[in-house]
Amino acid sequence: MSTTFFGLESARKALAASQKAIDVSGHNIANADTVGYTRQRLTLAAIEPKISSGRYLNSERGVVGAGVEIITVEQVRSEFLDQQYRNETSLKGEWSTRADALSYIETLFDEQDDTGITAAISDFTDSLQEMSKDPVNKEYRTNLLQNGLKMTETFQHYVSQLTDKQTEQNSQVEVLVGQINDLAASVSDLNQQIARYELSGQKANDLRDQRNQMLDQLSGLAEISYTYNSQDQLTVNLGGQILVENDTVHKLALAKTIDNPVTGQADSLYEVQWEETGNAATITGGNLKAYLDLRDGNSAETIGIPWLVGQLDTLANSMATEFNKIHQQGWTLPVNGASTTGVLFFKQSADIDGNLLAVRAADFTVDDAIKNDVYQIAASSAQVDAANINNGNKENIQSLIDLFNQTDLDTIGSFNSYLKSFVGSIAVETSHTNKMLSSETVLTDSIDQQRQALSGVSLDEEMTNLIKWQHSYSAAARIITTVDEYLDVLINKTGVVGR
What we know:
Layout: H1 2-30, E1 40-46, E2 68-75, H2 79-108, H3 117-133, H4 138-197, H5 205-221, E3 224-228, E4 234-238, E5 241-245, E6 248-249, E7 252-258, E8 269-274, H6 286-296, H7 305-327, H8 368-372, H9 395-403, H10 415-455, H11 459-492
Antiparallel strand pairs: 1-2, 3-4, 4-5, 5-6, 7-8
Helix pairs in contact: 1-11, 2-5, 2-6, 2-10, 3-4, 3-9, 4-5, 4-6, 4-7, 7-9, 7-10
């Protein structure tokens, strides 16, 4: 009799397992379009037969198992693919942010545009050529002044645009640090929720999905690494330091401790620090690294706003210094006074010993003396006779024209070649960045497709599973019906016939 009722218990367990499997498939189907959802599956195991021991036990008798046991409902995902995806997401985030900024910068320095530096320099040299035809002509002198102002204002415009872009990068650093802290707090909170839920022995799969989404987002903002302890609690590291440890968050903070090399303003840029210690945080990837590199990058290997402005400074300083050096040797036209020499064309400060100081592109402009009186432009290499102003020569202005054809200038070689090299560097860096972004996009998408193939919900597969578990449920129910029928015969229709 016990064996018979044992069969009923096995069938009951089969019914429960089939019902649970149908519930799991239903949950998968309901979340087929839910972002970040990982498909779940029911893990079952056969229950070992209960074997009694005794001297009269018939060892040849067949032993049947005790049915099926529900182990857990587990997620179908690969930790290896997750780690790969997050590593590539960090790189993709870095290249994507860099590509966006460089695209803007490349457009800004589009030298095919009539408003570029090349066009401004060309207009300025054309004005020099025109003035060389008739150095006395006020109209030519005024035209040279206007084109000189146009050229210097172009330099100033570029610096202004780049400075605004740097300010934007600095603001984005603040935004991203806030996002990282928010995500870290969410991961910590989910760690606690998962720990409480799984005290019951069940897997908190949907909470784990949320936590995995947080890791995906974090990896895009900054390069991270993470580990799980024996209770599956998550520890997240950023730059070799712990960001999240189980239920504890070590937040990032910002402090304006970095001097701005573009504006010269002290303590004006954010440094990313650890809130608890004040130590600088090491950022090695993601959107945040790209913003920091663009804001602070000052080398040909790490092209950023300071490097770009530095190139403009070098060109502006060379133009001002070399042009002023020749212009100071010439003589002015004595219309509003005597013919004088030593006049600066571009504004340039001097130290206490009279040595001219470097000119920054942001301050590059025509000297006030020229702005106020175009006759202060020194076209002649010899003093002009005040009594007969037309006897001045054109040698000095010709020397100024020749300056723009020189190829042996200190530091830059020539104005045009230096400018072409500078603009070419931007184009090369932009092209390289776009190629890296394209490569990372393909790689990230490929890994994500592998993740989705493993973890995503296939409606066809789930419908097949539903049919399978429906038949399994029906079969288990049929077992119960069969056992019920022979129990009815055994109990109600079997008896001893009297004499």
